[in-house]
Write a structure and sequence with these properties.
This is RNase H type-1 domain-containing protein. The protein is an alpha+beta fold and 129 residues long. The protein has a single domain, classed as 2-Layer Sandwich (Nucleotidyltransferase, domain 5), CATH 3.30.420. The chain has three helices and three strands, in the order ααβββα. The chain has a three-stranded antiparallel beta sheet, with helices on one face. It starts with a helix and ends in a 6-residue tail after the last helix.
Length: 129
């Protein structure tokens, strides 16, 4: 909905407002997901929230590293989203490049890229820790 407003001439909401909305939305998601899993008898979440302020470490063993980036072509109002998944040896296991209609600030574009990745991982029942 926010994207449509911006594409059609409205200004973006301030970053703190968007961040607050995202945190609240995610909190509601985890609460609802916990209720669903508890009712279904399955307490293992498909996705787990990352620890706040956890230091970055390279992947080890069978862990994977996911990198996202986004760039803007302001003349055409197109965001280019790029995702790369690497293993502990640095080999690329998966990659995605996708154009999206819109014109956002850099932090909003990267948030959109992460959203696309998380939806994709969730839809294929991939587990994150």
């Amino acid at each position: 909905m926010e994207r449509n407003r911006v594409v059609h001439g409205s200004t973006t909401k301030p970053a703190p407002t968007l961040a607050s909305f995202a945190v609240n939305y995610l909190s509601n998601f985890w609460t609802a997901k916990g209720k669903y899993h508890n009712a279904a008898g399955n307490n293992a979440p498909i996705l787990a929230p990352a620890a706040a302020n956890a230091p970055w470490k390279p992947p080890t063993g069978t862990d994977l590293k996911l990198n996202v980036d986004a760039a803007l072509d302001a003349n055409r109002n197109i965001i280019g989203v790029v995702v790369v998944v690497r293993n502990s040896a640095g080999h690329v296991l998966a990659a995605l490049a996708k154009p999206i209609i819109g014109n956002f600030a850099s932090h909003e574009m990267e948030a959109k890229a992460m959203f696309i990745v998380l939806i994709g991982l969730y839809s294929c029942n991939c587990r994150l820790q």
